[in-house]
Amino acid sequence: MAQQPFIVGNWKMNGTRPLLAEARAIDRGAGRRSGVRVALAPPFTLVMAMAEALGEVAVGGQDCHAAPSGAHTGDVSAPMLVDAGAQFVILGHSERRADHGETDEQVRAKADAAIEAGLSIIVCVGETEAQRDAGDAEGVVAAQLEGSLPAALPEGASELTVAYEPVWAIGTGRVPAVADVSAMHARIRQELVTRYGEAGADVAILYGGSVNAANAAELLAVPEVGGALVGGASLTADSFLAIVLAAGADQD
Ligand code: 13P
């Protein structure tokens, strides 16, 4: 991996204040290791407390609205996330695309709003099992990238991370064959370079979907896999730090 591996925990709709103890333990563990970037995306209700409690680990949101403020009951804007201490936001997760009908167009509008507010973004893409079985996986992901990514990266590659998360691998314990991960990440890289030129070569591309301590090293060794987006295994310090360690972090 050309750059430091980036390991991101997505807590999804999990966690109340007692779980901040795990986040603190993750922060301490990350602080004892160098050579890896670590981040956590808790539910909105914990963003501020977590951002105040952690020092090494970046804290982010799991979604934001495309507008900075207004009559959007229940939504949270990008400037609000910044105000709460967030440094990044996950956008276009397949659970939001499925549960809330989010379209590529909406994801792009959110991406533009988040970058405008000063957040870096993690844009998620991935095919369903039916799409893979039909031989469409790469085409589906390329179309999601085409529709969801911001037109430009004014501040460069560090503003954007892409997460490839096959829908059928999320929370199932199933992971794609290494060859399939490799082929998809190569395709994503090609799309990024076509779109952003030189900056596209430096955008981190994460793999997500049933990453755990046992399979992390193999997945992270795949060319163009720049890190992992981790769901279930990010909820405890033990399981998450094992993945951080597998990412090649040095331990003092
Ligand atoms: P799991 O690691 O629980 O499969 O979730 C992956 C994911 O959706 C992370 O965003």
Q: What keyword list fits this structure?
A:
42% helix; single chain; 252 residues; binds 1,3-dihydroxyacetonephosphate; TIM Barrel; alpha/beta; 10 strands; 11 helices
CATH architecture: Alpha-Beta Barrel
Helix share of residues? 40-55%
Q: Tell me the major beta sheet.
A: 8 strands, parallel, barrel
- SS elements, strand count: 10
One letter per element, helices H and strands E, the order comes to EHEEHEHEHHEHHEHHEHEHE
Number of helices: 11
CATH superfamily: Aldolase class I
Q: Indicate the structural class.
A: alpha/beta
Distance, first to last CA: 21 Å
Give, in spatial order, the strands making up the sheet with the most strands. Answer: 1-3-4-5-6-7-8-9
Radius of gyration, Cα only, in angstroms?
A: 17 Å
CATH class: Alpha Beta
- CATH fold annotation: TIM Barrel
Low-confidence stretches: none
Mean pLDDT: 96
Count structural domains: 1
The ligands bound in this entry are: 1,3-dihydroxyacetonephosphate
